[in-house]
Amino acid sequence: MLNLVFILNIVDNMGVNSLQPNKQDTLSEHVFEQIKEDIITGAIPQGCKIVETDLAKSYHISRGPLREALHKLESIHLVDRRPHSGSRVVTLDIVMMRDVYQMREAMEGFATRLACVAMSQADIDNLYRLLEKHESSIERSEGQRYFQKEGDLDFHYYVFSKCQNQWLIDYLNNKLYQVLRMCRHRTSQIPFRVEPALHDHYAIVDAINNRDPELAEILMRRHISGAWKVVEKLLNQEENKESK
Amino acid sequence: MLNLVFILNIVDNMGVNSLQPNKQDTLSEHVFEQIKEDIITGAIPQGCKIVETDLAKSYHISRGPLREALHKLESIHLVDRRPHSGSRVVTLDIVMMRDVYQMREAMEGFATRLACVAMSQADIDNLYRLLEKHESSIERSEGQRYFQKEGDLDFHYYVFSKCQNQWLIDYLNNKLYQVLRMCRHRTSQIPFRVEPALHDHYAIVDAINNRDPELAEILMRRHISGAWKVVEKLLNQEENKESK
DNA sequence: TAAGAATTTATTGTCAACAATAATAAAATA
DNA sequence: TATTTTATTATTGTTGACAATAAATTCTTA
Questions:
Q1: Which chain A residue lies closest to B172 (C-alpha atoms)?
Q2: Which CATH superfamily is domain A94-243 in?
Q3: Residues 143-182 of B with CB under 7 A from strand D
Q4: Is strand D within 7 Å of residue B112 (CB)?
Q5: How many angstroms is C1' of D8 away from CA of B62?
Q6: Can you tell me the ipTM of this complex?
Q7: What are the φ and ψ backbone dihedral angles of A165, each rounded to 5 degrees?
Q8: Treating both helix axes as pointing N-terminal to C-terminal, what angle do B27-41 and B63-75 enclose, rounded to 10 degrees?
Q9: Does the domain formed by B93-243 have CATH 1.20.120.530?
Q10: Confidence class for position B241, pLDDT limits 50, 70, 90
Q11: Interchain contact, A99 vs B166, CB within 8 Å
Q12: Comparing C-alpha atoms, which of A201, A237, A239, A231 is closest to residue A100?
């Protein structure tokens, strides 16, 4: 399954993963990426205390670069750091996830507005083709959630990457979407229906195609706040189950 | 003049400066704050190449903490960093400033919407009092631009600090507003009229007072995009002058 | 025995030396 | 003379040791 996604991303060269810079020139960068993935996938569990010397040993580097990596992880909200006291991996409570989804609603909505003005017709055609591909892959592989979520990310990424505001792109790509992936790992066991999402996506692209920035923004906002309502519900159910 | 602002901020405990964390427990934090101010005020000029050993010497620390400070400065977009090649102070060209103002429009607009729902009546009363104070201080000290700009920041800060989204507050306060202060230092010699801004502010607070989040957001957005149009004009004039 | 103070241990913050890379200058060739 | 190649220098990346602080433990006393 993972392979299929990988190949697809390479083929059409517009997948999320292929477009991340992933510059690992220095040791610190490399280990940053590694720890980031380990946190997002849960290999290093949430709330886990981080001891610099231990972690440095397990990644086979010295404390200097590790420290730089931790600083970077702090700047994208994946670890908390208190002077003299040490670092912990963040715990994604419901409040934090709400904050993230709200941010996403605001920023991606605005990015969609900007992209609607800036996109070429070729870009829009690409978007339609992307959605058609998602549609057919849903028919073919009903229930294979991982792929569908990646497809969802591909769509969102393609849209906001055309907004021509580097700050916006950077923040969405390097900060919000990392935490979002972490959220998804937490809720990945829970099935959800993708057809409504695809329907939303078509509506958004239609608005872009009609060059209606206000509508495009509103639709993207609703799409995201709708997604949050689903996630919130699931989290609340989970919480209730645990407290019993 | 500076003193007056300072006293005012302490007295009512709602100024921008008093609410920034400013934790300088470690050497690295301390020097981070120092360099940050030096960049924002222009003591270290834009586009300036940064040599770690030199800078470490001039701040009387070793390269370790300096490096951490530089990383932090990079994460708030105040320096650019390329592996093995070194760092430079950013140069605020018109594109970057447009990006920042766009971000601000999106995020502060959304923050205003959230704050409109979350604010207590006491908060709103405080806002009205703050505006009245600004109004009278404009009458008293016409033309003293520094104070007026600080007053403007106080207003904006007070609003978005009530949005109850820690990510949003953090981003606006620690990233966007730092670059914004840098912009203002660049354009500080240029006079501008504050009465229209005050009028906008009243309209925004009225919308909040009527508990109309949509309108509050729209008004805040217009207020900020209007401010950008003024700044953009000034920058273009400046550019034309230089190219002659 | 329980609470508080003093001591020890563990962990982070800082430093200065070393290695690796990129920018610069010098030399060689066309 | 212009251009490529080579050597030099300057600057960053990395490391391990040391100092300062916080957490844990032991000891004392009520």
A1: A103
A2: GntR ligand-binding domain-like (1.20.120.530)
A3: none
A4: no
A5: 26
A6: 0.86
A7: -120, 105
A8: 50
A9: yes
A10: confident
A11: yes
A12: A231
Domain boundaries, chain A: 21-89, 94-243
**Mind spelling out the 3-state secondary structure of chain A?**
CHHHHHHHHHHHCCCHHHHCCCCCCCHHHHHHHHHHHHHHHCCCCCCCEECHHHHHHHCCCCHHHHHHHHHHHHHCCCEEEECCCEEEECCCCHHHHHHHHHHHHHHHHHHHHHHHHHCCHHHHHHHHHHHHHHHHHHHHCCCCHHHHHHHHHHHHHHHHCCCCCHHHHHHHHHHHHHHHHHHHHHCCCCCCCCHHHHHHHHHHHHHHHCCCHHHHHHHHHHHHHHHHHHHHHHHHHHHHHHHC
Which pLDDT value is given to residue A126? Answer: 96
Q: What is the pLDDT along chain A (244 residues), one digit of tens a residue?
A: 333 233 223 223 333 433 344 557 899 999 999 999 999 999 999 999 999 999 999 999 999 999 999 999 999 999 999 999 999 999 999 999 999 999 999 999 999 999 999 999 999 999 999 999 888 887 776 556 556 677 888 999 999 999 999 999 999 999 999 999 998 888 776 666 677 788 999 999 999 999 999 999 999 999 999 999 988 988 888 778 776 5
CA of B198 to C1' of C29 (A): 72
More confident residue, B13 or B224: B224
Among the listed ranges A189-203, B59-73, B76-90, B100-114, which one has the minimum average pLDDT value? Answer: A189-203
* Amino acid occupying residue B133: K
- Give B-chain residues touching A67 at CB under 8 angstroms: 68
Nearest one of A112, A221, A224 to A163, comparing CA atoms: A112
Q: Which residue of B has its CA nearest to A95?
A: B165
pLDDT surpasses 90 at B143: no
Whether A52 CB is under 7 Å from strand D: no
| The domain made up of B22-89 is a member of CATH 1.20.1250.20 | no
Interchain CB contact of A180 with B (< 8 Å)? no
Query: Which residues in A lie closer than 8 A to residue B167 (C-beta atoms)?
Result: 77, 96, 99-100, 102-103
Q: Which two tokens stand for residue A10?
A: 């390479």
| Domain A21-89 listed as CATH 3.40.50.1240 | no
For residue B76, give the 3-state DSSP assignment: coil
A85 shares contact with chain B (CB less than 8 Å): no
Strand D at less than 7 A from CB of B117: no
| Minimal-distance CA residue of chain A relative to B108 | A106
Task: Evaluate whether B124 touches B159 at the Cβ level (below 8 Å).
Answer: no
> For chain B, what is the radius of gyration of the CA atoms?
19
Q: Determine which of B81, B102, B183, B225 to mutate to test the interface with A (most A C-beta atoms within 10 Å).
A: B102
- Residues in Cβ contact with A103 at an 8 Å cutoff, skipping those fewer than 6 apart: A176, B107, B165, B167, B168, B171
